[in-house]
Amino acid sequence: MRIAIAGVVRARWSEHILDEMVTAILSQRPDLDRAALDRTRGRMCTAVPDCLITGFEQLIPGISLPDSGDAHVVAAAIRAGAQAIVTFNLRDFPDHDLERWNMEAKHPDEFVMDSIDLAPGLIVQCVTEQAAALTHPVQTTEDVLETLRCGGLVRSVAALRDLMRTT
Q: Where are the domains of the chain?
């Protein structure tokens, strides 16, 4: 989110994608409060101007993927003019199915690495600002990096740690 807010990338999503996000989080973390997640969802949409994609539904029938339930993601990406779909689920978004729309699926670690290549100082600033914003409980920059590493951003965290050592 902070990378998008900083203007390094343009984040776009649909209500359907946000619905799936909340459902996935709750399935992995049933201890979380749905109302709090709904507030976060609203804040995401407020923080990133023009993030919600609409008018893509008619594209869905023409999209073929291993999991037909993911066609709405590609349709929204087409409507948004996206170059990439950022997902841990690369298996369901094969390159050969996306190339006709000149887009690719990227693992979040690869996506953040690309962002670091584009604007290393700004990405370090995003991580630092994220740590400063976390007050319940308080988290250090190292805590945020460890959370990202545990979440699968191994290469990105290594690169960020190297950058932070040299600044």
A: 2-107, 111-166
